[in-house]
Amino acid sequence: MMTIMKSKTPPAGARRAASSRKEATHERIVEVAARAIRRSGYDGTGVADIMKEAGLTHGGFYAHFASREALLAEAADRAGADAVRASADIAAAAAPGQSLQALMRAYLSQQHLEAVEYGCPVSALGSEMHRQAPEVRHAATRHIKEMIDLVARQLPGWGTPEAHQQAMFMVSAMMGTMVMARAVDDPKLSEALREAALKHFTEAGKAAE
Q1: What is the mean pLDDT of the chain?
Q2: In this predicted model, what pLDDT tens digit does every residue of 125-155 receive, in sequence order?
Q3: Is residue 124 part of a domain?
Q4: Domain enclosing residue 120, as ranges
């Protein structure tokens, strides 16, 4: 008599469903971590807290990430990508010739100032980045370059070395201004810092019209 052994391999449909669930869970963890690092800093972001916020058990972490550093790298990548995408959307939605000013106003706004966990990770985490693992710094570096390129595309001399240099200065100034505006405990000074930066770049915005 032939004995038929039951296969332990689940049907293809079940495998796809399991894979989709795992991918969705992975995405949820990364999204939570991307907010957490901006809110609490790299050192203040623990695996247990992220998993709890994601509605998962701590023990399930290593089914998705090899290490905490691997999670932080993905979180930094997600946060940077989201920030660049949001800035690009703002520039694209602006009236002709107003994209640079619209981008700067949004970046230096009160809304961005207060929404740390949803905003630019560089202004939220800049002072911590040089102490992070290489893969975390690499993710941050890639998106800083993307932000510089985005600003350069709004300048009349786009494609020239001069426009690229100007964009590097403008991005550095925007990010630095936001760091200072969040650092001070004087709301009026915080607002004045942001207004001063916007005023300084008004001529650059007019030149792009």
Answers
A1: 88
A2: 988 888 999 999 999 999 999 999 999 999 9
A3: yes
A4: 67-207
Domain of 77, CATH number, reads 1.10.357.10
C-beta neighbour count of 82 within 10 angstroms: 19
In a domain, 46, yes or no: no
Residue 128 in domain: yes
Helical H runs in 9-118?
Answer: 12-40, 47-53, 68-93, 99-107, 110-114
The three-state (H, E, C) secondary structure of 88-139, written as one string:
HHHHHHCCCCCHHHHHHHHHCCHHHHHCHHHCCHHHHHHHHHCCCCHHHHHH
**From the CB of residue 86, how many other CB atoms can be counted at a distance below 10 Å?**
17
User: 84 and 138 in contact (C-beta within 8 Å)?
Assistant: no
pTM: 0.82
Total domains in the fold of the chain: 1
